[in-house]
Amino acid sequence: MELSFEHPGSYLFARRVGPGLVTIVDRDFHRSLLLAPDQVVEDWPVTDVKTATVADMQAVLALKPEIFLLGTGETQVFPSAQIMATFLKLGIGIEAMTNAAAARTYSLLAGEGRRVVAGFVLPA
């Protein structure tokens, strides 16, 4: 039986997520990144959610998301209260989850035409 992958829509998507790796469409990334439906921001400086700062989130905010999915690696880690408060004060939803869960959730929301941004934290 022949299987083929048909991707509905015209947004960028995560094809594969693994330890230290995220594949966007057909390109492998080994450093943290941000993914929006229309662009990839490479070399996002966050390599550990526990040490991330509000300043690290400025690149996310520049993309003007309605919801931010924070992929925290292989395990779920919550960002600081200051980061959470920053997004909530701006009316932007924020959810922390594993990278794999962030990729799946991103695909669902982007497929609905939502302005979603996923951040994938990969170790340095």
What does this molecule look like?
The structure is a single chain. The protein is of the alpha/beta class. The protein is 22% helix and 27% strand. The strands form 2 sheets. The chain has a 5-stranded mixed sheet. The chain has a 3-stranded antiparallel sheet with strand order 1-2-3, with helices on one face. Strand 2 (21-24) and strand 3 form a beta hairpin. It starts with 13 loop residues before the first strand and ends with a strand.
C-alpha-based Rg, rounded: 14 Å
Structural class: alpha/beta
Strand content: 25-35%
Give the overall pLDDT as a whole number: 93
- Relative helix content: 10-25%
- How many beta-strand segments? 8
How many DSSP H or I helices? 3
- In angstroms, what separates the terminal alpha carbons? 41 Å
Write a brief caption for the model.
By secondary structure, the chain is an alpha/beta fold. The protein has helices at 58-62, 81-89, 99-111, and strands at residues 14-18, 21-24, 27-29, 33-36, 39-41, 67-71, 93-97, 116-120.
